[in-house]
Amino acid sequence: MVYGFAKQSQGHVSAYSEPGLGTAINLYLPASEAKLPKRASASAQPLVTAQGEEHILIVEDDEGVRAVAEQFLRALGYRVVAVDDLAGAVAALKANPGTNLLFTDVVLRGGETGPKVAEALHAIAPHLPVLYASGYARSALPLQIALDGELAFLRKPYTREGLGRAVREVIDRATNMGTKPKPRSVKRKRT
Question: Which of 44, 101, 115, 148 is in the most buried spot, having the most CB atoms within 10 Å?
């Protein structure tokens, strides 16, 4: 049946099977040249993307991930400084004392960790909110992160929208707890 459909559609099928593991069947079909009908704009729901103008300090040792996070946050209107280690984070915070959020990877190179970065920065700015990110499951993280459900945590890989929501939530929570309020904006996009 699948083979017949593939041939009728000018495509092909490949199958791979391994005892005890299962079978994978791939169906390859040619791309359609037909134009898709436009969606009715009345039925399209706008996406709400959390944005802001606050200053965010990114600490990420992977250059590619750091560049993506910086690009995402700048696209959402945030002012961003991105560094790759604890020393850079301390220097950046001293140069930008109005920083509103620390966004840090949990595991950094050279034995440095996000919690160590946060601890050092809290000696300078005690109320600086922190958003941790990691590609590891929360349960595989250092005990301090894994056990503290109150800590803000974002799982990698993340989308721009997911990062934007997490950043906005952490900043808003800190603002509601009495730290310096900053303007908030919401951008609506049509899909």
Answer: 101
